[in-house]
Each structure stands twice: as structure tokens, then as C-alpha cells.
Design a protein that fits this description.
InterPro entries: Restrct_endonuc_typeI_TRD (IPR000055), Restrct_endonuc_typeI_TRD_sf (IPR044946), Type-I_RS_S_subunit (IPR052021). Keywords: DNA-binding, Endonuclease, Hydrolase, Nuclease, Restriction system. Belongs to the type-I restriction system S methylase family. The protein is of the alpha+beta class. Among the domains are: 123 residues, DNA methylase specificity domains (Adenine-n6-DNA-methyltransferase TaqI, Chain A, domain 2); 138 residues, Adenine-n6-DNA-methyltransferase TaqI, Chain A, domain 2. Helices cover 43% and strands 20% of the residues. It has 13 helices and 23 strands. The strands form eight sheets. A four-stranded antiparallel β-sheet has the order 2-8-5-6, covered by helices on one side. α4 packs across α11, α5 runs antiparallel to α6 and α6 packs across α8. The termini are close together.
Length: 427
């Protein structure tokens, strides 16, 4: 493979984004990109083709790619290519250039376009080679996207069950109504659980019916009124903060970072979204053990841009130290971990609204005080056995695909520099 030396400006010129205030956006399907990724949606595209978005102000040098038409706001640059595979080649190339270190303004972080354009790059001379490299690496991203699609389906099923059984109490309400009408409460609950008619239930195999009957019997036949609202008998209302142990991450200073990436990575929101990257900071200092995380840790990001940062995450990036603004959620069982995960997914819109009401300079927070005020239904032993039977297997399946994404990401990131340098060629 033959290479040529050129400049970034000659190969991939940066174009300035255009301002689009949140108040001027109209709901649509076009992603709106800021310097740190998607910040909203709009009904009109600034760029009517796929492209690369580069952080200009704020998150300097952060690189995103959009495979669909998009809007890049004025804190960004964007770049385009005629061929999608070459666009992905260019995207991976930019990720290797560490543009995040090119901060030209100490007061407000900024990426100077002229300085970026002068960067010398070595790229395959033949367009076909660049295209082949882009396609080869993109296969990993496609596999990752497939895993994410499966995870989305699993979470949809899980949330449907959670909302029906543990938020709306549909099987209990069905029993209450049946009892008031003098009809079979078990059959009513089975209908609510399965969505089947009595005639369809009669056609079930005995094993299927027994499973549904046992599930129906796990729900009480009465709703109890309280100040917080109705709740199944035997269940209780709890403050969100009391459903588990929530440990906020540690505060790290620049002096804590190791120059040679010694020790373990410091896990911030960026790592929760993108995994360990070349921008991840490491520390070899002794940190309190309560801030240590490893594969399978359940985390909640409680501070940041409400629409994009407030989320519950599963961590599968190996050993690390948790940064502030993220809770490590400790429970005494995997069953309760599955409950908390689904609970926080269901509560996401409400938690976002709480954060928005206290939003300053684009950031919002969900505090411990907020979590102590927010009351949630907490199941009894029978309820947690239902979670073990139905939601925990889905939680584990979700985790397996999340772990697979991490493996694919690591393999891809190991291949990228070898392919871009020509040390490894696409067969």
C-alpha cells in the first residue's frame, strides 16, 4: 500500500457549524450536534448528507460521526466526504490525531481551524485503500450497533413488564376488579399478565398455564391507599435513596493523573458512553476502595446535560476508579440490582425534569436530597421473586450484549492504528 503526505486541511477541510438555539428548534428526526455530541433534534438539516462533527468550543476536538443528515451548531466544525466508507476512514483518522489537546484559548477552550488544517498526515494514496480501511473498521461499528439494537429490544420488553407489574400494578388491579365482581381473581390476573382471552388461556399447555397461575398468585388481591397513592398490600413506599447504597465518585485533581497511563482509569461520563479511550486519564495513586469499580458495576450519572447525561449505566470496562458526579449503586443481590436498573430507567423522564428545574449553564443535577424526596414502590418478597424469574434473566442477557460491545470496541481500537499506518492491510 502506497502512502502520501498531505495536510489535514487539504484532505479534510473543516467547515464552521451554524447557531441553532434550543428555543428555535422544531421537533423532528434530524440530530443536532454540539461539541460533545447530540444535544437535541430539529426538523431541518444544515448538512443534507452524512458527516463528521468536531468540537470547536467547549469539548475541544471531540469527534462524532453522523450517518444521516444533521445540524452542527456554532460550537463545532463539520467535515464531509462523497463516499461513506472514506468518511468513516476520515473519522477514525481524526480520532487518532488527539485534537482534544489542541486548546488555543485558556479562558474558553477552543480549537483553531488554521492550526488543525496545518497538521501533517500520512494517508493511503489510493482512494480504494482508504475506502477499504474505512469499511473494514466500520464492520465492527455495525456489529456494535447490532448489539445495541438487541439491547434496546431487551430493555423494551423489560420496561413493559416493569411498568405493568411494578408501576401500574395491572395484575393487582385486575384481581381487585374481579373480586369486586365476584369472578375468578387468578384468571383475571393471568389475563392481565399474558394479554390473552379466557378462550386462549384454555388452549395453553399445562406447563404454560401452571407458570402463569404461579405468577398470578404472587400478586396480592388488594391495593392499599396512602399519601403517596395506592400500592399493593404488603409492598411499601420508599425514598429512592433508600432502595440501595449510592456512593458518589471521588474528586480527582490534575496532579493525580499519571503521565504514562499507569494504574487504573478514572471513569467519567465520557468513559460511560465511549469506554476507555486515548483521552481517558489514569491514576496510580492510592484511592479509597469504595470508589473502585469493575465489570458488572451499576452506575448512575446524576450531573450533566439533563437530556444526554442523566442515565443508568452498566460498566464493563474493567477495573477503574469512579469520578465524582456518578453514583456507584451497591445492592445485596443481583435481583435488587435488576430492580434498581429498571426503576431508574422508568424514572428517567422524572429525574431529567428535576435536573432541568435546577439547570445552570447547561448543566443539571439530581441531588441526594432529590432522591430522598422521591418516593417509589418497593415490592415484598413475592414481588422480588417475580423480578428474579422475569426481569433478572433479561438483565443478564442485556449485560452479556453490553460486555460483547466492550470486547468489539477493544478489538476495533487495537486494529485502527495498525490499519491506518499500513502495518496491517485489509485482506
Amino acid at each position: 500500500m502506497e502512502f502520501k503526505t498531505t495536510t489535514l486541511g487539504e484532505y479534510l477541510p473543516f467547515i464552521y457549524g451554524k447557531a441553532l438555539k434550543s428555543t428555535n428548534r422544531t421537533d423532528g428526526e434530524v440530530p443536532v450536534y454540539g461539541s460533545n455530541g447530540i444535544v437535541g433534534i430539529h426538523n431541518e438539516a444544515l448538512v443534507n448528507r452524512p458527516g463528521i462533527i468536531i468540537g470547536r468550543k467547549g469539548s475541544v476536538g471531540e469527534v462524532c460521526i453522523s450517518a444521516v443528515p444533521f445540524w452542527a451548531i456554532d460550537t463545532t466544525f463539520y467535515a464531509i466526504k462523497d463516499d461513506l466508507d472514506e468518511l468513516f476512514f476520515s473519522y477514525y483518522l481524526l480520532k487518532q490525531l488527539e485534537l482534544t489537546k489542541m486548546n488555543s484559548d485558556s479562558a474558553v477552550p477552543g480549537l483553531n481551524r488554521e492550526n488543525a488544517h496545518q497538521i501533517t498526515i500520512n494517508i493511503p494514496k489510493d482512494f480504494k485503500d482508504r475506502k477499504s480501511i474505512g469499511r473494514a473498521i466500520r464492520l465492527y461499528d455495525q456489529k456494535i450497533d447490532n448489539c445495541r439494537a438487541i439491547i434496546k429490544l431487551i430493555e423494551s420488553i423489560s420496561q413493559t413488564i416493569f411498568n405493568s407489574w411494578f408501576k401500574d400494578f395491572d395484575p393487582v388491579r385486575a384481581k381487585v376488579a374481579a373480586k369486586a365482581s365476584g369472578i375468578d381473581t387468578q384468571l383475571a390476573a393471568i389475563q392481565a399478565i399474558s394479554g390473552k382471552s379466557p378462550a386462549e388461556i384454555e388452549q395453553l399447555l399445562q406447563k404454560q398455564y401452571q407458570k402463569l397461575a404461579a405468577t398470578a398468585d404472587s400478586f396480592p388481591e388488594e391495593l392499599v391507599k396512602s399519601d403517596e397513592g395506592e400500592i399493593p398490600m404488603g409492598w411499601e413506599w420508599k425514598a429512592l435513596y433508600d432502595t440501595a447504597e449510592y456512593v458518589n465518585g471521588s474528586v480527582f485533581k490534575s496532579s493525580d493523573f499519571s503521565s504514562e497511563r499507569d494504574g487504573f482509569p478514572i471513569v467519567k461520563i465520557a468513559e460511560l458512553k465511549s469506554g476507555i479511550t486515548s483521552q481517558t486519564k489514569f491514576t496510580a495513586k492510592a484511592i479509597a476502595e469504595k470508589y473502585a469499580i469493575d465489570n458488572g458495576a451499576l452506575l448512575y450519572s446524576w450531573s450533566g446535560s439533563p437530556e444526554t447525561s442523566l442515565e443508568v449505566f452498566k460498566w464493563f470496562g474493567g477495573k477503574g476508579w469512579l469520578n465524582q458526579h456518578i453514583f456507584l449503586i451497591n445492592t445485596d443481590s443481583d435481583v435488587k440490582k435488576a430492580y434498581i436498573y429498571n426503576l431508574l430507567k422508568y424514572l428517567k423522564p422524572e429525574l431529567i425534569n428535576i435536573a432541568k428545574n435546577k439547570q445552570t449553564t447547561g448543566l443539571g443535577h439530581v441531588t441526594v436530597a432529590d432522591m430522598k424526596r422521591l418516593r417509589v414502590p418497593y415490592p415484598d418478597q413475592d414481588g422480588f421473586e417475580l423480578i428474579e424469574d422475569y426481569l433478572l434473566p433479561l438483565y443478564d442477557m442485556d449485560s452479556n450484549y453490553t460486555l460483547q460491545i466492550e470486547y468489539l470496541r477493544q478489538q476495533r481500537d487495537a486494529l485502527i492504528p495498525k490499519l491506518l499506518s499500513g502495518k496491517l492491510q485489509v485482506n
